């Protein structure tokens, strides 16, 4: 699958191109000498400059810098003002470039069987030399430009400082002495190589006597003996070898070897790594040939003409698992990238892709054909190839998800040697690998293993010992293959999807037990069962004969398109078949066709359930169509057929939603499980079938499977290529990193329900079995009461934590303007490490108490990820094993305590995890304890010595260790010494009162801060019957609650209820005034009721405005304050009735309105708006108590006769009523005999109306209803208002505050007072 990764249009030809190994940066130089640095991931230009001429911005910047440094008059012409001339080469240089250049050279040299001992023992990472700077180096004819991309400051080195010779090419030298710093070699027009120091910016040595003409290209590599060499190619056609070791400090160096390579000059040199052999050199020349050289004997191995009549301008060594036979990529000035298959024997050249089909059509016209002028493969991600053309820069991506054809075999118990099976060409081979040092690796070591088996760090080396063995059974095909192993490890499956063909081998004797035609194969994780996608054999794609041309390439593309169409037809007829391998080694078909769906199958995923992906009929987007069209002109052996059928789902554009086309099936019943899902790119199932991971392009979805399926979450790990479970750890490889995901399902309510349901089902089954065996009598034994303590299982959310173990990046960049201490020679070290740690040989290790090595960081610094696509083998011997595309095993250390503790906890050994935590700095124990808590090990986490008190409290609460939780809480709140029941003050206490007061204030503040925790602790203690702990906590909290305004209202309420619950009456009484002051009348009254203090209850209600409750209580208990309370309450109600909504008026309008208000002319007018009067049953009217003997006016005599009650009392005006009602703060007057006589017997029979919720209330003028006691209430006649003299009502009322009155009260005489029941105000 080839697709466009990034495209940047350009009007000029792109002649020079280079990729940065670790950052997504691409530098190009075009025909008009404009240099651009482009971020191809974010599609942004980082920097641009005109290198050929004079860049005005740089010139002005240089002048400003010099002015800032105090130089007023420049001495001579600045170097920025010199014309650069044509750009000959562009490159990046920083610590990453330096490291990976050295790594590539050593790894290639280490492949030679004779070189292993020489090379592996001496590999040490280079010391950081550029100190966080990222240099862009531009080699122009007249000068070299060194530009720092961090600070944007540059340095120009004119050719006058390099013997005044034109600079044509450059190369960075790996080895240099400490004083010289980084070295860069420039090839001159006079055949001399000059070496410049990037610290002194001076010429340090020359290589002379090799070339007669100009030098065209330079490259460093390492011989199998371990010697660093520099090879140069000149316009005279010579290939010259020089020593680049610099152990002898000589100014002039002469060549070691010189040989004729090409007629007409050498154009480019490339290093090729050979599996199991010495590295090779590839050269291309002006004579249109490509030559391959052996670096041991320096003899020519092969010479070919890749594309007839056209000379190559770029060459790249390539090793991609999707195309295992293609070793070299090259480009000529046409629109293809060409690949050379088996360069040392058959040497067939094929077009890998037609680039014009990748770019948007508007950039190419019939008159402007696409032409490639330069090409480079990514040094660390071989699936990325960048090409510079006459229309812009194209970065193409070639199947980033394909993995090396290797699969691990299970290791026998107790065996330290592990093995994996891999396919190379037509051979099946066995890779045995193990850690060669038997001792435990150093604590805190954070090294990664290079190809050569040496740690990239100064920790104890973890040498990898590996042996490759040949298996006698041959393999039928040499095209792209996929290797997998059954769950038991007894069988190995190999699928060649391009053929299509599969074979199943028995591992014990490597005999073939099953084979046939299939493009996809998936194993069951529980038994030796597999599913295959059977298909009819599509026609083979034609091979271009040697010596093809562009015309032949087009013919081949048309043939490939036909073959792809035929393959699509064959795919639509394919069926999914399940077979089982029995113990005798025979294969039997279980199910001939799974699923009744008619859509063609495009993917199979093995696991505890079989996943089948179908092609959905959907509209193809323009981006997908473009990508599909790019695939079809691929005449590689068997390519195209599987690309357009199997991988079609991955051509989706980002905007297009993922179709629901993935169905899970049971291996047992072959029935669908659940609904349709989006198709994942790969799936990984835990060996114990507890967890599964489905990987999509941007994230990985993780779910738990037991006790039932539950989605846990997704982790944002984009472009993951594969993953392996190790208990609750998922190790994931991406093209640039290695990640570890720690997973725990937590405890959800649905899990507990499912568990309970399953236990009940088991119990019923046991009963049914017992009845079947022994009859009904058996139930007596089964149903006997089981005394099993019901444990309260705390719910726990799921936990997903991602830790990055390895990446390509070097140590974190430190900007150069920071002062740097002396650098350590540790690759992944923090550069700002103090001197005392630097002298330690452990990576990031300090010495703790008792001489234990303690890691000073939370996690190890990222280790170096091996290059290229990787297969994750899994964890064996405490290290994570990986195998790369060169079939080399690598080990990633997991011994840093931050990682080790997590791995042990995830594996289920929390006790060992806590022991290992002693080697982790105590400042990281909180972090580790949170992890253990998420994994369900709260009790074990309590044993970590460095956890904070706050976290210790949470852990103690989780693990039900309430005594420890109380101690933590007392320490955090500093409240050990308050709340004690003291006997009195001694003399010393009196003398230290000031200090004691300060302590109490501090303690109260502490308790207030942790009030919620105190309440939680009291509840937990009450729930588990630990009353003494609850009492200790209550003492502290009530002491703080007694301070006015300290606790919030909800905290005070909770405290009051808990004090009442525990019978702490003394402390409760001190709390009541605080409750009243913040308006918690109910709680204060409840406290008064618990204390048995009626006056306190009334005060609580009265002071918080709950007058209805106060009246009812006073009436029920015969309190002398009843009259005052009723008057105060009626007054409040009257105010609420008279309240009118306020409208905005100015002062004048308000004054005029006041003049227009009607004035009262008589008491009769006042009686038209009667005051509200609501009374408890049997209480006399408040207005009846006012006796006025004033004679009425003659005009109103008749009205008064009708409107006055029998005792002749007139209606009281609001002013008079207010005068009668005493203020709330005045002393309650003594009740007269009449009031005492009106308390009804029925209300006296209910002494606590606040508890019962039913109260006896008689508003005047109501209709008569039976009283709950069944007897009417006798009321003296002279006190009843209105005509119904014997009417009484009993109305149930709730204890709520009065909210509002009905607004339709009609005015009138006192005798016609509105009939309002008490429930209207209390309901």
TrEMBL record:
SUPFAM superfamilies according to UniProt: WD40 repeat-like (SSF50978)
Query: Per its UniProt record, what InterPro entries does this chain match?
Result: TSET_complex_member, WD40/YVTN_repeat-like_dom_sf, WD40_repeat_dom_sf, WD40_rpt
Q: Which UniProt keywords apply?
A: WD repeat
Q: Where is the composition biased (Low complexity)?
A: 1240-1252
Extract the ranges annotated as region (Disordered).
1171-1323
Q: Name one Pfam family in it.
A: WD40
Q: Where is the composition biased (Polar residues)?
A: 1288-1307
**Stored PANTHER family:** TRANSDUCIN_WD40 REPEAT-LIKE SUPERFAMILY PROTEIN, TSET COMPLEX MEMBER TSTF
Protein name according to UniProt: Transducin/WD40 repeat-like superfamily protein
């Amino acid at each position: 699958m080839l697709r466009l990764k990034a495209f940047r249009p350009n009007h000029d030809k792109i002649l020079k191109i280079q990729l940065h190994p670790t950052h997504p940066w691409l530098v190009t130089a075009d025909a008009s000498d404009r240099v651009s640095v482009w971020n191809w991931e974010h599609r942004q230009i980082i920097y641009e400059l005109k290198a050929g001429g004079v860049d005005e911005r740089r010139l002005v910047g240089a002048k400003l810098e010099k002015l800032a440094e105090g130089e007023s008059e420049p001495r001579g012409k600045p170097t920025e003002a010199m014309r650069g001339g044509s750009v000959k080469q562009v490159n990046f240089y920083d610590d990453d470039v330096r490291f990976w250049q050295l790594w590539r050279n050593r790894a290639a040299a280490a492949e030679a069987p004779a070189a292993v001992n020489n090379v592996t023992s001496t590999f040490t990472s280079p010391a950081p030399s550029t100190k966080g700077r990222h240099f862009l180096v531009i080699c122009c004819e007249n000068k070299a430009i060194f530009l720092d991309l961090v600070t944007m400051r540059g340095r120009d080195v004119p050719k006058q400082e390099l013997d005044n010779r034109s600079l044509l090419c450059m190369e960075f030298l790996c080895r240099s002495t400490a004083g010289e710093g980084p070295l860069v070699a420039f090839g001159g027009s006079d055949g001399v190589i000059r070496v410049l120091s990037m610290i002194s910016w001076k010429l340090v040595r020359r290589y002379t006597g090799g070339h007669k003409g100009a030098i065209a290209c330079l490259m460093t590599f390492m011989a199998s003996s371990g010697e660093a060499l520099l090879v140069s190619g000149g316009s005279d056609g010579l290939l010259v070898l020089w020593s680049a070791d610099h152990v002898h400090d000589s100014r002039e160096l002469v060549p070691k070897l010189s040989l004729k390579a090409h007629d007409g000059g050498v154009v480019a040199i490339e290093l090729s790594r050979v599996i199991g052999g010495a590295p090779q050199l590839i050269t291309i020349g002006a004579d249109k040939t490509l030559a391959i050289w052996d670096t041991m004997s320096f003899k020519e191995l092969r010479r070919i003409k890749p594309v007839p009549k056209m000379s190559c301008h770029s060459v790249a060594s390539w090793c991609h698992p999707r195309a295992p036979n293609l070793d070299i990529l090259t480009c000529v000035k046409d629109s293809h990238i060409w690949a050379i298959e088996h360069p040392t024997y058959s040497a067939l050249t094929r077009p890998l892709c037609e680039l014009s089909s990748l770019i948007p059509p508007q950039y190419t016209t019939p008159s402007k054909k696409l032409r490639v002028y330069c090409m480079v493969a990514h040094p660390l991600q071989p699936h990325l190839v960048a090409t510079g053309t006459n229309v812009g820069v194209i970065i193409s991506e070639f199947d980033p998800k394909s993995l090396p054809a290797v699969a691990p075999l299970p290791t026998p118990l107790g065996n330290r040697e592990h093995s994996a099976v891999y396919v190379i060409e037509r051979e099946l081979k066995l890779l045995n690998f193990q850690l060669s040092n038997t001792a435990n690796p150093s604590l805190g070591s954070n090294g990664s293993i290079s190809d050569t088996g040496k740690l990239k760090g100064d920790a104890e080396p973890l040498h990898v010992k590996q042996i490759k063995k040949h298996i006698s059974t041959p393999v039928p095909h040499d095209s792209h293959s996929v290797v997998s192993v059954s769950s038991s490890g007894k069988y190995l499956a190999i699928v060649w999807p391009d053929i299509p063909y599969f074979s199943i081998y028995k591992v014990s004797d490597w005999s073939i037990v099953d084979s046939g035609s299939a493009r996809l194969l998936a194993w069951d994780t529980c038994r030796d069962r597999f599913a295959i996608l059977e298909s009819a054999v599509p026609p083979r794609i034609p091979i271009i004969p040697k010596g093809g041309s562009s015309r032949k390439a087009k013919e081949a593309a048309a043939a490939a398109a036909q073959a792809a169409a035929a393959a699509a037809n064959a795919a639509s007829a394919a069926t999914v078949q399940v077979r089982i391998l029995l113990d005798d080694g025979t294969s039997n078909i279980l199910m001939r066709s799974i699923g009744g769906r008619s859509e063609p199958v495009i993917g199979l995923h093995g696991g505890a359930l079989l996943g089948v992906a179908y092609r959905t009929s959907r509209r193809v987007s323009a981006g997908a169509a473009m990508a599909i069209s790019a695939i079809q002109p691929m005449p590689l052996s068997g390519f195209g057929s599987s690309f357009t059928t199997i991988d079609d789902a991955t051509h989706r554009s980002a905007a297009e939603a993922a179709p629901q086309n993935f169905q899970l099936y049971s291996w047992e019943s072959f029935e669908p499980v659940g609904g349709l899902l989006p198709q994942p790119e790969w799936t990984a199932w835990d060996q114990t079938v507890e967890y599964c991971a489905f990987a999509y392009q941007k994230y990985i979805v993780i779910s738990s499977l037991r006790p039932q399926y539950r989605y846990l979450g997704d982790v944002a790990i984009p472009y993951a290529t594969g993953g392996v479970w190790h208990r609750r750890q998922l190790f994931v490889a991406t093209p640039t990193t290695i990640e570890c995901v720690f997973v725990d399902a937590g405890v959800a309510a649905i899990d507990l329900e499912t568990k309970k349901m399953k236990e009940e089902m088991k119990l019923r089954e046991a009963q049914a079995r017992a009845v079947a065996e022994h009859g009904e009598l058996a139930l007596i034994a089964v149903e006997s009461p089981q005394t099993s303590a019901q444990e309260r299982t705390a719910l726990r959310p799921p936990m997903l934590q991602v830790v990055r173990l390895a990446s390509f990046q070097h140590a974190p960049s430190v900007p150069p303007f920071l002062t740097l201490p002396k650098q350590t020679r540790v690759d992944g070290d923090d550069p700002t490490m103090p001197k005392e740690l630097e002298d330690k040989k452990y990576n990031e290790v300090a010495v703790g108490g008792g001489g234990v090595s303690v890691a000073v960081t939370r996690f190890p610094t990222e280790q170096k990820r091996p290059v290229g696509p990787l297969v994750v083998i899994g964890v064996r011997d405490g290290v994570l094993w990986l195998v790369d595309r060169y079939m080399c095993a690598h080990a990633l250390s997991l011994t840093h305590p931050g990682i080790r503790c997590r791995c042990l906890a995830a594996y289920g050994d929390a006790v060992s995890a806590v022991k290992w935590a002693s080697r982790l700095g105590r400042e990281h124990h909180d972090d580790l304890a949170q992890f253990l808590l998420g994994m369900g090990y709260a009790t074990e986490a309590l044993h970590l010595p460095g956890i904070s008190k706050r976290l210790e409290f949470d852990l103690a609460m989780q693990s039900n260790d309430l005594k420890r939780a109380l101690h933590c809480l007392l320490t955090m709140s500093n409240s050990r010494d308050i709340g004690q029941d003291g006997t009195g003050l001694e003399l010393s206490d009196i003398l230290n009162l000031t200090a004691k007061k300060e302590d109490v204030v501090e303690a109260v503040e502490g308790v207030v801060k942790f009030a919620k925790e105190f309440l939680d602790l009291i509840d937990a203690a009450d729930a588990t019957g630990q009353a003494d702990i609850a009492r200790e906590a209550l003492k502290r909290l009530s002491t703080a609650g007694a301070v006015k305004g300290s606790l919030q209202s909800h905290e005070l309420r909770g405290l009051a209820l808990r004090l009442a619950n525990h019978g702490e009456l003394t402390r409760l009484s001190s709390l009541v005034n605080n409750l009243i002051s913040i308006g918690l009348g109910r709680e204060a009254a409840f406290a008064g009721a618990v204390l048995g203090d009626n006056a306190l209850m009334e005060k609580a209600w009265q002071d918080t405005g709950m007058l209805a409750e106060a009246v009812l209580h006073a009436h029920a208990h015969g309190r002398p304050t009843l009259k005052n309370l009723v008057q105060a309450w009626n007054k409040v109600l009257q105010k609420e009735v008279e309240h009118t909504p306020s409208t905005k008026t100015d002062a004048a309008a308000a004054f005029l309105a006041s003049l227009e208000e009607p004035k009262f002319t008589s008491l009769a007018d006042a009686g038209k708006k009667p005051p509200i009067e609501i009374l408890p049953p049997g209480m006399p009217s408040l207005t009846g108590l006012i006796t006025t003997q004033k004679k009425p006016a003659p005009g109103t005599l008749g009205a008064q006769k009708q409107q006055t009650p029998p005792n002749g009392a007139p209606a009281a005006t609001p002013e008079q009523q207010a005068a009668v009602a005493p203020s709330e703060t005045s002393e309650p007057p003594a009740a007269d005999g009449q009031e005492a006589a009106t308390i009804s017997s029925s209300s006296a029979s209910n002494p606590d109306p606040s508890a019962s919720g039913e109260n006896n209330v008689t508003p005047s003028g109501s209709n008569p209803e039976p009283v709950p006691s069944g007897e009417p209430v006798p009321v003296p006649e002279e006190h009843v208002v209105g005509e119904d003299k014997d009417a009484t009502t009993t109305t149930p009322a709730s204890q709520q505050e009065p909210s509002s009155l009905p607004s339709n009260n009609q005015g009138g005489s006192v005798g016609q007072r509105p009939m309002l029941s008490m429930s209207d105000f209390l309901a």
